[in-house]
Amino acid sequence: SGFWVVVPAAGVGKRMGADRPKQYLPLLGRPLLSLTLRNILAWPGLAGIVVAVSEDDPYFAHIAEAGHPHVHRVTGGAERADSVLSALNYLAGRVPPETTVLVHDAARPCVSLDDIQSLLADDVSPMALLAQPASDTLKLGASDGNRQVVEKTLDRSRIWQAQTPQRAPLGELQRCLREGLERGAGITDEASALELAGHQPQLVEGQRDNIKVTLPGDIPLVESILRLRYA
Length: 231
Ligand code: C5P
What we know:
The protein is an alpha/beta fold. The protein has a single domain, classed as Spore Coat Polysaccharide Biosynthesis Protein SpsA, Chain A (Alpha-Beta Complex). The protein is built from six helices and eleven strands. The protein has helices spanning about 30-40, 80-90, 115-120, 170-180, 190-195, 220-230; strands spanning about 5-10, 25, 30, 45-55, 70-75, 100-105, 130-135, 140-145, 145-155, 160-170, 200-205. The strands form three sheets. A seven-stranded mixed sheet has the order 5-4-1-6-10-7-11, with helices on both faces. The protein has a two-stranded antiparallel sheet with strand order 2-3. Strand 2 (about 25) and strand 3 form a beta hairpin. Helix 2 crosses helix 4 and helix 4 crosses helix 5 (about 190-195). The two termini are about 30 Å apart. About 35% of the residues are buried.
């Protein structure tokens, strides 16, 4: 029993423009993925972690958590959804389809235990994700020649920014991702695959500091949050 965590970590981190995939960039002297795995290993009720890494990844074997008995490695795929599906396929032969799976980005090392407990609370839907209500006013852009102009302003009161973890039962998430990928739908998170199959995952308000490391400027921000967290 207990829940499993899937960590897609097979991306190249193009937007970071660094010499290696962003999940291996050092933050406070430790690879980002190592910080994320250390965080997850402290979640009460954890049964295990499946990390999806690239086939020829030379870095993973060297991080401190790679040899941990709760950490399993699988080969990821071309897109994030392929990487997650590969991890779910590995799990499907080992645990029942009702098993709760949390999918969590390698690039989000700051998620707090409070957020995990909110997501796993008894009264939360089996399909749910951490998300943050939008704080900026959001504009839908349109092309006007070579410029972008405002087509309209969105109703901010209904806009949420999706974070991770995102939770679902193993078997249903596996089916929805497989079918979404077959249809060629652009799937950028687990909830969107569930939505395509007609589900309505619950939005659970998370904290603002659950930042995804994407651009170089995110690194000092995340380092200062981690310094407070682990001080
Ligand atoms: O690019 P983005 O920041 O959205 O990536 C989110 C997560 O998905 C990262 O942890 C990245 O390593 C992972 N990913 C993956 N396989 C891919 C592409 C991205 O596991 N093919």
